[in-house]
Write a structure and sequence with these properties.
With 291 residues, the chain is an alpha/beta fold. The protein folds into 2 domains: 83 residues, Monooxygenase (Up-down Bundle); 140 residues, HAD superfamily/HAD-like (Rossmann fold), CATH 3.40.50. The chain is built from 11 helices and 6 strands. It has a 6-stranded parallel β-sheet with strand order 3-2-1-4-5-6. Helix 9 links the parallel strand 2 and strand 3. Helix 1 packs parallel to helix 4 and helix 8 packs parallel to helix 10. The longest helix is centred in the N-terminal third of the chain and has 24 residues. It is elongated and about 90 Å long.
Length: 291
């Protein structure tokens, strides 16, 4: 059987050309179209229309079919770019918000104090930790054993911070939300932390859960964290979540609860990038530290 290699080659080339914009359609649907040149889209669309006219005149069916698909896909990109990037402004997009887990989403401190008190018959209270870490408030001889309490079972059953589920869900509906935990501090916690997040925050996809060491590697507009050390080299904007140990920290804007987090992001212009975040950073008062 004779094979028309010329026709086969042309059909394959037409199919590749026709489908070349499909990945772009999917990307624009997920991330918006701010990075796409409107002039480029106009030229591709015009080219597709002219090629279609050429194909009709010359009865080139493969060329006509390929360019019809191209016109449809490019038109879809143009419509989505207009929808996700109204006015063509490059700084309009969902915010990328990184959120720490322990002492921000999960109440790890209360569980640690409970285990310590149970193990040693002590009566340490959260109020006594104001301005200090737990290890600073217990006898030196107990510190190693107390640190060892942070095993896998510890992270599996932590209580959720008040309003965290509701507010994080609302943020995730408008922005890109990533859960970022310095899990390398306690390597045995990986599985337990992942199970905890899937149980309480199932709307956060696994691809948006990041276990790391130094959080400066995270590319985000905002980082919500209770430990100020993670802000030192972070390229975005910091938001300190109040905890007893950071009560004396005054270098960064802070929030005292998840309702404060909601109010903070509601006060920013919708879907704005780092420029707007920078303008709004002064709206959070450092005076909200717990007494």
């Amino acid at each position: 059987m004779n094979v028309d290699w010329s026709a086969l080659l042309g059909t394959a080339a037409a199919a590749c050309s026709a489908l070349s914009f499909l990945p772009q359609v999917l990307k624009v649907r997920r991330q918006g179209g701010r990075d796409l040149s409107a002039a480029m889209l106009a030229l591709v669309l015009t080219g597709g229309i002219l090629w279609s006219v050429y194909a009709v005149i010359n009865q080139a069916t493969a060329v006509l079919a390929a360019n019809a698909v191209i016109i449809v896909l490019v038109s879809a990109v143009v419509v989505m770019k207009a929808f996700f990037d109204p006015g063509g402004r490059d700084d309009i997009r969902p915010l990328r918000i990184a959120i720490d887990m322990d002492e921000v989403m999960a109440d790890a401190l209360s569980e640690h104090v409970r285990r310590y008190n149970t193990a040693y018959g002590a009566s340490l209270t959260i109020a006594e930790l104001h301005g200090r870490h737990l290890e600073e408030c217990i006898p030196a001889g107990r510190r190693v054993a107390t640190e060892a309490m942070l095993d896998a079972s510890f992270f599996d059953g932590l209580p959720v911070m008040a309003d965290a589920e509701e507010v994080v869900r609302d943020l995730a509906a408008l922005h890109e939300v990533f859960i970022v935990s310095a899990a390398m501090d306690v390597p045995c916690s990986f599985d337990a932390k992942y199970r905890w997040l899937r149980r309480h925050f199932p709307f956060i996809p696994p691809s948006n859960i990041v276990f790391c060491g130094d959080k400066h590697v995270i590319d985000a507009d905002w980082l919500i964290d209770d430990r100020a050390r993670h802000f030192a080299r972070f390229k975005g904007k910091p938001l300190l979540f109040s905890a007893p140990h950071n009560a004396a920290e005054t270098r960064y804007p802070r929030v005292a609860s998840w309702q404060d987090v909601r109010d903070h992001f509601a006060g920013l212009e919708p879907s704005r990038g780092p420029a707007a975040a920078s303008e709004s950073i002064g709206s959070i008062s450092t005076a909200t530290a717990p007494d």
